[in-house]
Amino acid sequence: MKVLVAGIGNIFLGDDGFGVEVANRLSMLPPVEGVQVADFGIRGLHLAYELLGGYDALVLVDAVPMGEAPGTVAVIEPDLDAIRPPDDELAPTLEAHSMNPVLVLGMLASLGGSVDSVRIVGCEPAVIDEGIGLSPAVTDAIDPAVDAVQEVLADLARHEEQESRA
Question: N vs C: which end of the chain shows fewer Cβ within 10 Å?
């Protein structure tokens, strides 16, 4: 199984840089076979083209407003069919230096690619304003998010192993 773990977000907007920080922390750990960890920041078009490399799963790590207490980490499994935009809505809104996961997946589909499984490891932000650096609550969520990504990877591996036995 080939998995891409993509840290996304804008480091110049406070807690929006959460995914980038988690990707940086994950990249310091020993590599896992079949898993690539990368900081994509706000480069949505780059992410879409990277996914054309034939990944089976995508794990996005991002600041995600969920209405929870700042620093809350959650794993979200989106309905891929429900979030892909129609082709006619894709071209005018996708920019090379923006990150909208829905549009990235739409662009991937329009390029003839696909990814079978997407998980989002999200963290409730406290502050999304101009400025570099995470709030204390979101900084404290980095280690739990790293753990959550590792749990998602283990879950994906178990699922792949079960399918190969069937």
Answer: C
Distance CA(151)–CA(166), nearest Å, equals 23
pTM of the predicted structure, to 2 decimals: 0.89
* CA 137 to centroid of chain Cα atoms: 20
Please name the fold of domain 3-165. Rossmann fold (3.40.50)
What are 84's two structure tokens?
């892909």
- Taking only the tens place, the pLDDT of each residue in 44-82 is 889 999 999 999 999 999 999 999 999 999 999 987 766
Exposed/middle/buried for residue 113 (C-beta within 10 Å: 0-12, 13-18, 19+): middle
